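In response to reviewer comment 3 from the previous cycle, which asked for concrete evidence that the modeling workflow produces usable outputs, we include below a single protein chain processed end to end. The sequence was submitted unchanged, and the resulting structure tokens are shown without manual editing.
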Amino acid sequence: MILRAPVLILKHVGLDFRRFIYSCRGLFAYLKDLIRIKKQIKDSPEFSGMLKIFPIMNDRYELSGEMSGHYFHQDLYVARRIYNNKPIKHVDIGSSVYGFVSHVAVFREIEYIDIRDSDDVVRNIIIKKADVTSDELSLSNYCDSVSSLHAIEHFGLGRYGDPIDLNGHIKAINNIYRMLKEDGVFYLSVPIGHMRIEFNAHRVFSVNYLFNILSEKFFIDKFSYIDDNGRFYEDVEINQDKIKENYGCSYGCGIFEMKKA
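The workflow returned the following structure tokens.
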């Protein structure tokens, strides 16, 4: 974990070390291709004088599209669960707009709550600004379905301009409980591994801690997870030994489907 921290920090400030290496590696191939395309343009009146330089040299070494990892699997899986369960009113809190929210908006209306402003208008997405950790959140018995995927681990760490609050995740869970109607369903995903805060990026929760705090308010119907290598395990057995071992994860992703108790 300590070794990967400098790489992640560089990436988040705009310095992607892997992309830099791939770009250096691809420079020679790019120059060769540039010479070839210039020769071909000479015989093409449609593109004569229209060549502009826009070098992208790393894509030839990337995979064709990574169908793995936390966001890829959780967004598809939970969107599918919502499609199957067909709630009357579904509300999402802070999940990926590019992934999960847009997936759901393809087949139904979704209300999206975030602490930050948004001026976008998109069909089937209703955007609301709110702090879900606030004691003043007045949305009791508001809906029968709520999701929050890879979001609650950030609440209270200031990353998104929210106030510092060590128990921000607990306050959010309590408010979500109040938002749900009787027998409402809550879809939650968070990083799993040994308990820690990687400030100000996120918290990582032990699976045992999550089961303890969630089972006070919810009946846990399904548990799935994504391991450290990005592989997805759907609706696995809830086993105490595996819970204590965090299902073998150091930085995995636990996905809970729960019903309001």
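The beta strands are 90-93, 110-114, 125-129, 143-149, 180-192, 196-198, 202-204, 218-226, 232-233, 252-260. We consider this sufficient to address the reviewer's concern, and the full set will be provided in the supplementary archive.
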